[in-house]
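ligand=uridine-5'-diphosphate-xylopyranose
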Amino acid sequence: MRIAVVGSGYVGLVAGACFADLGHDVILVDNDQHKLVALRNGQVPIHENFLPELLNRHRGRRLQFSDDLQEAVRQSAAIFVAVGTPPTESGEADLSYVESVAREISGAIESYKVIVEKSTVPVYTSDWVRKIILRNGTNPELFDVASNPEFLREGTAVTDFLFPDRIVVGCDSERSADVLREIYAPLTCTNKEDSYYQRADSIPQPDRATIPAPLFVTTTKSAELIKHASNAFLAMKISFINAVASVCESVGANVNQVVQGIGTDSRIGPRFLNPGIGYGGSCFPKDVMAFRAVARESGYEFRLLDEVMRINEEQRQRFLRKVRSALWTLRGKHLGVLGLAFKGGTDDIRESPAVFLVQALLQEGGKITAYDPAAMERTQEILGSGIRYANSAYEAAQGADALLILTEWEEFANLDLSRLRSELRYPIVIDGRNLYDPEVMAAHGFTYYSVGRAACHPDGVPAATLKNGPGNGTKK
Ligand code: UDX
Ligand code: UDX
């Protein structure tokens, strides 16, 4: 099938490359000329596993890059809209890019097309897109608007796309549902010849893949809600466990044990129960706010979501208090920082709790040397020379008064602890991602603070239980 994908950001680029890998002819449209030139020249603008392979495989063949949206619409049966939907000041999603794309598309519809929302948008957006296209004089018989939300995690977006838990297709007509079923047929069909999974060159299957992928057809409104509700639920799971971690700190329990105990209940499940410094990224913060705004507009005060956001914000403050209580004053202290990306496996620093914490520590007079395997260049664009950048985790630790772990990169969980200790000026590690076992850290001579577990000292004596959380350190 011929497909256009509008917007070649994190979502559009991955979707376009994956559609090409499924065998479709894809035109990726973007209005950013620099991005188009870079993509045509073989550059990969984001750090994403398997994306370079897919772009190499299909660039110039099944995957074309263009700035001509109308021509792409004329040539395609389905147009996936994946332009940005950033939050406005009041927390609603800014849909102006979606609207301008809808307006432009309308001028090029000469035969039947399915316009598919891929960006995360509030419920009713499909109605608006439809109205805009009709307002511009398009024959209603010539198009349908559908919603096909993405559930792609950065870092594993390609395998999330090709091996999804489910594919949700929101369509208000059988005709548009058929087009989307056909597009995803290589992932959903059971016959060997047509299945993507039977191909010798398919991307390797991750653990826990559901094959073939289930596809649900819903109304467009339900599909729009499924996306917001999924992300809000996952954010709630993280805030829930962060709140439990705070109780663990107050009573001297171990949150890891609690997670194991509750996560093995199959009704709850162990995933997305890692406590830490709170969720970040381009989706959860924005989507929780947008879902709350949509609910309010429809007459429902979704206060649970306020609390999810409040706990998330509080989690960063708790971590800052932990740093202060470990180091007393911060002015002039040298801090090694491991991790700047909003999570491991990506170079994305949008809404990164790590970058937020670095900025807060700088404001308190700390001197920072940071290392991140992928996100240093992007951080430099924001923080400039305000911090030093190291070439390795050990270099970041050199001569530091303490080491802070802020992103859950796998390599940070496998450091040579003896070497790390010898690099640090004082053997203090404050881990915002619980990458280490406190007893192991104490045995290696560290004073180790983490989230939802008692702090440990080298002599094996847990630090005094912090009655009111780690709020007793003096802030200078
Ligand atoms: C997208 C969705 O917008 C968001 O709702 C979802 O939750 C996550 O995926 P992302 O892919 O991260 O976000 O967006 P971004 O990296 O900003 O890319 C958007 C692309 O669209 C950019 O390359 C931009 O140049 C392009 N664009 C934007 C257009 O081509 N036309 C426009 O009118 C606006
Ligand atoms: C998310 C959704 O998972 C994906 O389905 C979607 O549609 C896009 O948004 P992403 O933002 O890439 O994906 O990252 P995700 O892996 O969900 O992590 C989000 C944030 O939560 C990160 O900051 C991460 O560190 C944090 N997190 C995640 C936790 O703090 N604990 C966890 O257990 C899981």
